[in-house]
Amino acid sequence: MTSSTPVEEEDDQNRFKLIWGILKKLVGVRDIVSMRVSVPAQLLEPMSNLEYWNYMDRPDYFACLSDPEEPLERMLGVIRWWFVKDAKHVHGRLVKPYNSTLGEQFLCRWHVPKDAALGDACLEEAQTHDYDGDAYTVTCITEQISHHPPVSAFQYTCEEKGISAFGIDHLCIGFSGTSIKIAAGDQNKGIFIKLDTYDEEYQMTHPHAHVNGWLRGALSISMADRCIITCSKSGLKAVLEYKEEKWLGRAKHAIQGKVFRYDPAQEAKDASRKDKVKINDADVLATLSGSWREKIYYTLQGTKEECELVDLTMLRPLPKIVRPLEEQSEHESRRIWHEVSTNIMQKNFAAANRAKHAVEEHQRRLAHERKHQERAAFESAYFEVLQTGYPTLKQKPARF
């Protein structure tokens, strides 16, 4: 991401004023997302929700998750990926993408050169369709599987390394008058990662975020609550605490955490402990500290040496490799929103609003037709959602 120009900053201020006018009417609404508020094109980023809310900003950190032989090192690798997956939020400006349509799909991939170091600058150059170097491929499949409430399913895979990540995205957003709170909805059980080499599965729960600064006109993101990462196979768990920002004073974006041993069998017997994590000092293997917008460090138990886990100050999202528009299906995001995006980028907002209205009307017609069919329920093209709370793939795309 590049820093904003004066023109972009002025555009952001104008967007802020218009969005503020809309939000003031929604104070006290428990879940703004479920209302599917239609926002004028001039307030939107020319990108779909499915493409924007993507957890693979740094596929290089994903493709190496199964490399360490020691369970603790693998857990630290998963934690590292947790922080870099949303690199766009560290330095980028806040944006409002399109509300994805029911059945909408976004497919893409990345190249991770096998000789590249983590965070290497050459990784951006490798993200081309015709890259012919020796690289791992990380793929992304995500689909909007519900409209009311808006829910999407996703899966990322590095087949050569036997690594996959998957989950359900369901967000609840409320506005208090000064702050927007973004939290995981009931269907969102977190992000799951599987490492086939070690037959391990990690579950990562989402903290909640606040968009602050509405009264000052300078928007910023703060994180609160915690992320819990659990791996029953290795018997390791991590708790990452996001420290609440103070109303006065400089935001520190502080993070503290512990990695420790736990008993999966005992925890399964005591369902009441799901939200209450008791940590015995003797079970702690490592502690973490730092800032989720700067640097994060870890210290192994029994040592005093503070080691750098990740430096987020230099990381930027890697470009996505997406098929040319003419090769995409009618259900893919960039094709659905092509006319809207083109007009937004040309600042022809009247035409963009007409094109956006046409997309929305088409969806209403499809919903009306489904009501009069024998099988009115929507069927996902790629995903089947299990009772355990995460999706499995029914089929893979023919091409990425």
Question: What does this protein structure show overall?
Answer:
- The protein is α+β, with helices and mostly antiparallel strands.
- It has a domain at 6-223 and 319-330 and 381-393.
- It has helices at residues 6-23, 49-52, 59-62, 71-84, 88-91, 122-125, 264-269, 333-336, 338-345, 349-371, and strands at 105-113, 135-146, 151-158, 163-169, 171-175, 180-184, 191-195, 200-204, 208-212, 220-224, 226-231, 236-242, 254-261, 284-291, 295-300, 307-311, 383-385, 391-393.
- A twelve-stranded antiparallel β-sheet has the order 1-2-3-4-7-8-11-12-13-14-15-16. A four-stranded antiparallel β-sheet has the order 5-6-9-10, with no helix packed on it.
- It is globular, with a radius of gyration of 22 Å.
- The model has no long low-confidence stretch (mean pLDDT 87).
Strands, total number: 18
Spans where pLDDT lies below 50 across 5 or more residues = none
Strand order of the largest sheet: 1-2-3-4-7-8-11-12-13-14-15-16
Q: Please describe the biggest sheet, giving its number of strands, its sense, and whether it closes into a barrel.
A: 12 strands, antiparallel
Shape: globular
* Distinct helical segment count: 10
Q: Could you tell me the radius of gyration in angstroms?
A: 22 Å
Strand content: 25-35%
Pfam family, one: Oxysterol_BP
Family: Belongs to the OSBP family.
InterPro entries: OSBP_sf, Oxysterol-bd, Oxysterol-bd_CS
Protein name: Putative oxysterol-binding protein
Quick structural overview:
The chain has 400 residues and is α+β, with helices and mostly antiparallel strands. The protein has helices at residues 6-23, 49-52, 59-62, 71-84, 88-91, 122-125, 264-269, 333-336, 338-345, 349-371; strands spanning 105-113, 135-146, 151-158, 163-169, 171-175, 180-184, 191-195, 200-204, 208-212, 220-224, 226-231, 236-242, 254-261, 284-291, 295-300, 307-311, 383-385, 391-393. One of its GO terms (molecular function) is sterol binding.
